[in-house]
Amino acid sequence: MRRPTLEAVAARAGVSRATVSRVVNGSASVNPEIRAAVLRAVDELGYVPNSAARSLVTQRTDAVGLVVSEPPSRVFSDDPFFSVVVRAVSQELESADKQVVLMLASSPAGQARVERYVAGGHVDGVILLSLHGSDPLPAALARTGLPVVSHGRPASTDRLPYGDCDNVGGARAAVRHLLERGRRRVATIAGPPDMTAGTDRLAGYREVLSAADRRSLAALGDFTRESGAAAMRRLLEDDPDLDAVFAATDLMAIGALQTLRRTGRRVPDDVAVVGFDDIEAARFTDPPLTTVRQPIAEVARAIVRMLLAQDPAHRQEPVILPTELVVRESS
Amino acid sequence: MRRPTLEAVAARAGVSRATVSRVVNGSASVNPEIRAAVLRAVDELGYVPNSAARSLVTQRTDAVGLVVSEPPSRVFSDDPFFSVVVRAVSQELESADKQVVLMLASSPAGQARVERYVAGGHVDGVILLSLHGSDPLPAALARTGLPVVSHGRPASTDRLPYGDCDNVGGARAAVRHLLERGRRRVATIAGPPDMTAGTDRLAGYREVLSAADRRSLAALGDFTRESGAAAMRRLLEDDPDLDAVFAATDLMAIGALQTLRRTGRRVPDDVAVVGFDDIEAARFTDPPLTTVRQPIAEVARAIVRMLLAQDPAHRQEPVILPTELVVRESS
DNA sequence: CTGAAAGCGCTTACAG
DNA sequence: CTGAAAGCGCTTACAG
C-alpha cells in the first residue's frame, strides 16, 4: 500500500512532474484544463505530497515546535494556563498554515531530544513556554540558527525575543489596592524563584511595600493550588495577624482561601486576598476573587507573529502587554 | 548559519560520505581510528543528520503520532487521564527511540489536518486516544496503510487494533458491590453515549441490575466533575429516595459527592457512591471514594507495543486488561 | 573495511 | 504556459 508519488500523478494526467507540482502548489500559470486534469488525477490517486521530499528541497517544514519546560503532570493539570496558550498558539499558527508540534521537555533527556529534533530540521522555528532559570534550551536552540521566541521573559540574559505581561506592574497594582483598602500587614505567596513570572511579581510586591515603609512577608509556592494552601499555612504561623495576602497566581490564591477558611478566618473581613491571572475559576470562588487579569492568549498570539515575522536583520523588541486589576469580593 | 551536512563532515574527516553515514548510524564495520576521526569531525562541526533527507531514503521517520480527539480545554484539564496516557506512551516510545508527536483533533478541520500530516509521511504510525463514535480518523488513517492502534475500544466496527480495560466487568463489580451492601435503589451517572467507555460501563450496570430484577436509573454526564454534579441533581429529582450511585468516572463521582453534600445527604449513610478510574484524588475526597481501578498506563504501554510490533500478516487481537474494585469509605 | 554511484520524491530556475 | 534537468542531504546495495 505504497502511497502514490508526483510521478504517478503526472503519468495519469499525461503531463510532466513539474506541472503537477505547480498545480499542487497553487501556481497561477497553469492552463485551466490541464489543472483540472491534474486535480482529477490527484483525487483519483489520493495523492498527498511527501513532506520529507518537499522539505529537502524547500528547506522548510511549515511546522513550528511548541516546547513546554514542564512535566506532563503539570501541563495536564487544573492550571488552565497551558490550555489557553496551546489553543491560542495553535489557532494563530494554523491560520498561517503551519503545523504545531507540541513537545514537553522537563528533564535533561527531554531537552536533549528536543534539541536533536530541532537540529534535525523538523521545524522552522520554536516557541518556548514556561522557561526556568537554568533551562539550557535557549542557548542550545540559538545554535541551530532557527528563529526562537519565548512566552514569558527568559531568566537568562540571552537576547531571546519574548512576549510577556507586565508582571511587575500587575503585582504593584494588586498591593497598592490592598494598601488603599487600609490593609496594614500584607503578605505574599510568591512563585518559583527560577521563573521570572515568580520573581517579577515578587519584585512588584516588595517595591510597593518598601515605598510605603512596610515589611515584606513572603512564602514560596510553585504556582499550584496545593502549594498555595501550604504557603498560606506558613504565613499564618509567621504572622497570625496578617490582614492581606497577594498570591502570584489564582490557583495559589484559591489554595490560600482554603487554608484561611480552615483556620477560621473570614475573607475579606479578616484577611483580604488578591490573585493573579483571572482564570475562569476566580469568578466562582467563595468569595469571588479579586485578581490581576493577565492577557495570556494575547501574548501567545503576539509571539507567534514575532516568530513568523522574524527577520535576522534587526533584533526584536519584547512585547509587554498590560495587566488589569479586577476587583471582586475577596478584597 | 546553514547547518553542516554529511558532505562537510566527510571532507573534514577525509573519508567518503558513506563512511560518515555508517559511523553516524552505528554500523559495526568501521575501522576504530576512522570512526574516531569521523566522530571528532561530527563534534567539531556540530553535525546532526537532516531528518527529511534520511526519511526520504529510509521511508521511516522514527516518529509516532498521538492523536487525541478532544479540544484543548478537555485535554488540559483536571482530568488526569490524558496526563497518564501521554506520560506512559512517551516513556514507552522514547525507550524505543521514537519521537512522540502530540496532536489534538476535535473538529473536522483538525481531523483533516491530522490526516494530511499522517498521509504526508511525518510519522510511522498513529495512536488514537479518546475516540468518539463518529470519528472519521480510523477510516481515514487506515487508507494511509500505516499502523494505527486505539487506546480504548473504538465505537465503529473497523477492525482497528486496540487496548482497553474491562469496562463492562468493572461496572459489574461496582454494582454488585453496592447490591451486596444492601443498597436497593442504585442509580448511575453514565459517560458520553458516543464513547465505548461510556456505553460499556452503562451496559455492565444495567446487566447486573436486571439480573437482580431491579430498575435502572441513569443520567448522562461527559466525564467531567461539573457534569457529574449536574447529573446527580437530576437523579435526585427523578428519585429522591435512591440510596446508591455508580458514576462512570471518579471525576463525575466527585461532582456527585458535591451535590449530595449540598442537598444534605450523608455519604455513605444515605447514599453510597462508587466511581471508576481510581485517580489520585479518589483517596482524598470526603469520604474517600470507593472506585474501580483502571490500569490506564498499562493499557497505554500495551498499545505502544502493539503498534511497534505490528505485522500486517496477522490481525492483532485487542488487549483487555482487568480492573479491580477498591473499597473505601463512600460505600 | 571503504568508496562511487544510484536513488528516495519533491521544487525550481532555465529554456523554449 | 510547459518540460527536461539539476539538486536538496541522506542511505545502501554493489564492487573492490
TrEMBL record, chains A, B:
Residues covered by the HTH cro/C1-type domain: 5-33
Chain ranges passing through the membrane: none
Protein name (Swiss-Prot/TrEMBL): DNA-binding LacI/PurR family transcriptional regulator
Family matches, as SUPFAM superfamilies: lambda repressor-like DNA-binding domains, Periplasmic binding protein-like I
Record-annotated HTH lacI-type domain positions: 4-58
Keyword terms, alphabetized: DNA-binding, Transcription, Transcription regulation
Lyase found in the keyword field: no
UniProt-listed Gene3D superfamilies: 3.40.50.2300, lambda repressor-like DNA-binding domains
Family matches, as CDD domains: HTH_LacI (cd01392), PBP1_LacI_sugar_binding-like (cd06267)
MF (Gene Ontology): DNA-binding transcription factor activity; transcription cis-regulatory region binding
Record-linked Pfam families: LacI (PF00356), Peripla_BP_3 (PF13377)
